[in-house]
C-alpha cells in the first residue's frame, strides 16, 4: 500500500500529461553532460520504460511486455556517472542521494547501517 501511494506521487498527475520521451530526456542530459553518448541514450530509454511500466503496468496498450531493467554505471573517477544520475534526478524531480557502501556493516557492528542510506532519501 505504501508503494502504491508513493507511485501516485511520482507519476504525472494527469493521464494526458505526457511522459518525457527518450529523445527529450537525452536532449536534457546533453545540455549538462558532455560526451557519454551511449550512457545517455541507455539511461533515457530505461527511464522512459520505467515510467511507462509504472503508468501502464507490465504491458503496453499494444500488448508488448516491458521488462524491468536495472542500470549499473561503471567507469573511472570523473567520467560523469554521478553527474548523469544527479541531472536525471533533477529533470525528473525525484530524490537523489549518494552513499559510500564501503562503510556499511551488519547491524550491531561498528560502522554505518543500510537504514541510514534509506533515511537520506526521506
UniProtKB/TrEMBL annotation:
Protein name: ATP-dependent Clp protease ATP-binding subunit ClpX
Gene name in the database record: clpX
Domain ATPase AAA-type core: 71-119
UniProt keyword terms in alphabetical order: ATP-binding, Hydrolase, Nucleotide-binding, Protease
Domain of life: Bacteria
InterPro entries: ATP-dep_Clp_protease_ClpX, ATPase_AAA_core, P-loop_NTPase
Any one GO molecular function term: ATP binding
Protease as UniProt keyword: yes
Gene3D superfamilies from the UniProt entry: P-loop containing nucleotide triphosphate hydrolases
GO BP annotation list: cell division; proteolysis involved in protein catabolic process
GO CC, any one term: HslUV protease complex
Record has Ion transport as a keyword: no
